[in-house]
Amino acid sequence: MTKRELMADGILVLTAFIWGTGFVVMKNTLDSVPPGAIIAIRYAIASMLTACMFKRHLRGLTRADVCRGAVVGLLLAGAYIVQTIGLSMTTAGKNAFLTTVYVLLVPFGCWLVFREKLSRKNFLAAAMMLAGIGCLSLDGESGGLNAGDMLTLVCGMLFAAHIMAVERCQKKTNTYALIVLQFAFAAVIAFAYWMLFERDMELSVNMSMAGGLFYLSVFSTTGAMSLQNIGQSMAPASHAAILLSLESVFGALASCLLLGEVLTPTMAMGFAVIFMALVVNSLKIR
Description:
Blueprint: H1 3-29, H2 35-53, H3 63-87, H4 92-99, H5 102-114, H6 120-138, H7 147-169, H8 175-197, H9 207-232, H10 237-244, H11 247-258, H12 265-282
Helix pairs in contact: 1-4, 1-9, 1-11, 2-8, 2-9, 3-7, 3-8, 4-7, 4-11, 5-7, 5-10, 6-12, 8-9
């Protein structure tokens, strides 16, 4: 493994850790702020911070660059809005693990859209993922799969499309410029959603809400999303997806330790099977 590959892996694992702990913060913040408002505020702050950080990379942007940023931003906003709404209906641990369905969808999406080859491990991992989700759906103690869980699976599909779009767009648009553009468009889209569908929902201003939005804006969004884009510029999308999926492990652990969520035996089995599917999908099988 080269120094560049080690650096890419370290960046992507750090991203996964920040995202994983972010599930707990997001769950608490939802008590005070509507989902669309959280996404709009965090990405508005993130776009301003990254614009200051990467302003020299924004020179000479073309209309095509802006269009690519809009596409990536639309997918990003859609994924986070659906995920946040789903999180309000389910536990942080389940939300974290079910989101990782994007890891398996990226290879299949690349096959469908870009005609990249699939291997046997992809099909085996997909079957294992379905088995793990089946365990969660059969768990009577946690209520099985609910509407929040289904929305989380849809969110995974959107994240898969986002990862694929980032990889393709970075080949024609500067990585740092794409970070700023997608954050800005995500903020605009989330703000429109907030105004259209959540205007009547209560927004409580308190220290907990302010602290949660600060963490989500500065660490989970500005820091982690920037690291994701940088890491992806140094590693293939399928490899990046595997390491980013570790957010499910960090998220489940954080939800148990910080939120006191109960992990039933059936849920533990489901999480274990899902994680094994992620590992199988990352193996190099001849």
